[in-house]
């Protein structure tokens, strides 16, 4: 299991802003940023193994955000709207898939570009 180190690059809370974080390879002799797609893949794998609600994993994959509204954090309104829309989109798709097994085959979302 790899350990990830990060360096804050702006005023944000760790609870909700993965986009402004840089993760570094702890095994490298010099600080080397890890590929954001690799980091996202590791996080999604851990979410699956931990039994995280699939709507949360879907929203994370789609938005690049990982928000927890129960923390009472004052998230950026645009981030919060994007997060909630992704959760709602998953819930709609999931409900349709249960009602129509043919709809269960959901198209794979591209991972959010690390340049976004």
Q: In words, what does this structure look like?
A:
This protein has 116 residues and is mainly alpha-helical. The chain has one domain. The protein has 3 helices and 2 strands. The chain has helices spanning 36-50, 54-63, 77-99; strands at 5-8, 21-24. It has a two-stranded antiparallel sheet with strand order 1-2. α1 packs antiparallel against α2 and α2 crosses α3 (77-99). The longest helix has 23 residues, at 77-99.
Supply the number of structural domains: 1
- Quaternary structure: single chain
Helical segment count: 3
Based on helices, strands and strand pairing, what is the structural class? mainly alpha
Radius of gyration: 16 Å
Distance between the termini: 27 Å
Quick one: how many beta strands?
Answer: 2
């Amino acid at each position: 299991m790899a350990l990830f180190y990060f360096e804050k690059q702006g005023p944000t809370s760790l609870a909700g802003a993965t986009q402004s974080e840089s993760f570094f390879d702890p095994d490298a002799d010099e600080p080397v940023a890890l590929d954001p797609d690799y980091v996202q893949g590791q996080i999604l794998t851990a979410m699956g193994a931990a039994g995280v609600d699939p709507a949360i994993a879907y929203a994370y994959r789609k938005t690049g955000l990982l928000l927890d509204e129960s923390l009472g954090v004052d998230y950026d309104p645009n981030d919060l709207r994007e997060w909630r829309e992704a959760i709602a989109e998953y819930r709609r798709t999931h409900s349709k898939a249960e009602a129509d097994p043919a709809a269960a085959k959901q198209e794979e979302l591209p991972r959010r570009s690390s340049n976004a």
